[in-house]
Amino acid sequence: MGAEDDDEPPSKRVKVSSGQLVDISDGTFVRDPASCSLGDSMARPLTLQGEDEVVGTKGIVKKVEFVRIITEALDSLGYKKTRALLEEESGIPLHTSVINLFMQQILDGKWDESLNTLRKIGLVDEKIVKLASFVILEQKFFELLHKEKVTDALKTLRGEISPLCINNDRVHQLSFFIISPFQQVLPGVSGQGIVRIKSRTKLLEELQRLLPPTVMVPEKRLVHLVEQALDLQLDACRFHNSVVGEMSLLTDHHCGIDHIPSLTVQILHEHKKEVWFLEFSHNGKYLASSSADFSVIVWEVKLDGSVCMKHKFLGHKTSVSYISWSPDDHQLLTCGEEDTVIRWDVEFGKCIHIYEKKNVGFISCGWAPDGKRIFCGVTDKSITMWDLEGKELECWKGHKTIRISDLGITSDGKHVVSVCKENMIVLFGWESKVERVIQEDQAITSFVLSMDSKYVLVSLSNQEIHLWNIEGTVKLLAKYKGHKRSRFVVRSCFGGLHQAFIASGSEDSQVYIWHRGSGELVGTLAGHSGTVNCVSWNPRNPHMLASASDDSTIRIWGYNRVNTKQHDTDNGVNCCNGRS
From which domain of life does this come (predicted)? Predict the structure, then answer.
């Protein structure tokens, strides 16, 4: 039963009868396994001349291991002849002759012989031996079924697989294939009613991951080490804000401060009073801002990076304190300070609906991910859910929110995030009714969810910003310090490539930027002449940042590539009054 009929192409088989390197059809060189004793070669670790020799200046890279992973890299890239030449010249084989024999037996489907060779490799951990045996025998089982040798497959299951006494659930599954006439066993990818057996090459890759790396060098190990080195360089780079494709293996990676938005490239003057809030759309094509002048302006981001006014919305009776983009960016919710919530059409600049509730006002708003419902924070400390036509669907009372105009809805739509007490944020599962909390020692002034809804950035009254992980167990990850806040609400945001930075407004008229991972303050942007109330980073352009200030302006920060000449925003701009 060890040497079954072989369906693999002849090019994968090799027959050798001497101790020399033999060239097989694809250019691979294999040493004759008969030229050494199995027991002698793997009962103890392979001993090579210069085994303790190291390379490099730090004295930690073993030459033998280094050469072996280079050899494996050449092999994985298809440079078989070069691999063989390196083995011959260095005297350091990628694998021992026993491992080469084992691999060839797997490719040839010589299951019994491969099991015998596995025992002679000299593995100390018996569990690994059993797991490897199970994988080999499972392949043998499926190939027998594929050839309709059901009796032999049953013998393999009962006499070889079951006695291993591991993975009993899988053994039961295998027995099902014996008794079920509806299952087909075919090569390829599994589907309904069909079980696809893996190729022997895939089987070998699975065994390679299972066996210790000293026995079989992990596949593409050199590439993995290089990728790790690049990742470490990226982590150490405090200004990295570019795509990975721009990295090179030929030089160490380093970015300068010019990789983060640090220059004022445009100043927007259209608001008449303090600008309280602003936010880029999800697609990065628009910027919405709101002001104490009761207005909301939608700005369009042009292809050249310049920003110009598209619509001006007039409809609120109070200062507009909060904005929320619909998931598809076609609509916008705006919330007046303890006033109504208005839904606007962004393309045509029209008021679609006004949401009101008798005897109370709204302080915050947000969209469900499906874009079919909205959530509102109410002055009576409740949170309400509405359909788009203005029908109230749910109302959750009992200190679900306080008069802080921030509201978050997680990307799965299952949790509403709000400030429920002065120093506490609640993550409310509105379907499950399960609540989790973020407890701070200081008063919370604002918060924002990350794009993936795994993190919450909390601004505090003590001039600190805290980063919390809310995926699973709530956990404090980092603190950011340096900005100024004593009287006003100043908002922070995630931003940059992969949201690797934290930005915040400040009462000293500057924008502060930290590296998210290290907490290091990497930049302060000066230019405003009043408190910076809010910042927003373009989610599609890591080099564009916007800031809103009490000086009634919005500054666009980036590279010095955009013509900073002020655009004439009076021509072709629609002005809509939501209450007309």
Answer: Eukaryota
Interatomic CA distance for residues 241 and 451, integer angstroms:
17
Q: Please give the angle made by the CA atoms of 429, 430 and 431, to the nearest 5 degrees.
A: 90
- Residue 339 DSSP code: B
Token pair belonging to 229: 């080195």
- Phi and psi at 291, nearest 5°, equal -145, 165
Tokens of 225: 């080490």
How many angstroms separate the CA atoms of 148 and 3, rounded?
16
First-to-last C-alpha distance (Å) of the chain: 87
Name the CA radius of gyration of the chain, rounded.
33
**Side chain identity at 33, as an amino acid letter?**
P
Helix (H) or strand (E) holding 342: strand 341-345
Contact 389, 380 (CB under 8 A): no
Cα–Cα distances (Å) from 64 to 55, 57, 71, 216, 519, in that order, read 10, 16, 11, 14, 40
- Per-residue pLDDT 10s for the chain (580 aa) are 444 444 444 333 333 333 333 333 333 333 343 343 333 333 344 555 556 799 989 999 999 999 999 999 999 999 999 999 999 999 999 999 999 999 999 999 999 999 999 999 989 899 999 999 999 999 999 999 888 899 999 999 999 999 999 989 999 988 888 877 445 555 544 444 455 678 999 999 999 999 999 899 998 999 999 999 998 988 888 888 877 667 788 888 888 888 899 999 999 999 999 999 999 999 999 999 999 999 999 999 999 999 999 999 999 999 999 999 999 999 999 998 888 999 999 999 999 999 999 889 999 999 999 999 999 999 888 999 999 999 999 998 876 677 767 899 999 999 999 998 889 999 999 888 889 999 999 999 999 999 999 999 999 999 999 999 999 899 999 999 999 998 899 999 999 999 999 999 999 999 999 999 999 999 999 999 999 999 999 999 999 999 999 999 999 999 755 433 333 344 344 445 554 3
Contact 522, 501 (CB under 8 A): yes
CA distance 102 to 114: 5
Rounded distance between C-alpha atoms, residue 121 and residue 297, angstroms: 72
Give the E-state strand segments of 470-564 in sequence order.
475-481, 492-495, 501-504, 510-515, 521-526, 532-537, 545-549, 554-558
Own/partner pairs, 355-358, CB within 8 angstroms, 24+ separation? 355/386, 355/390, 357/384, 357/392
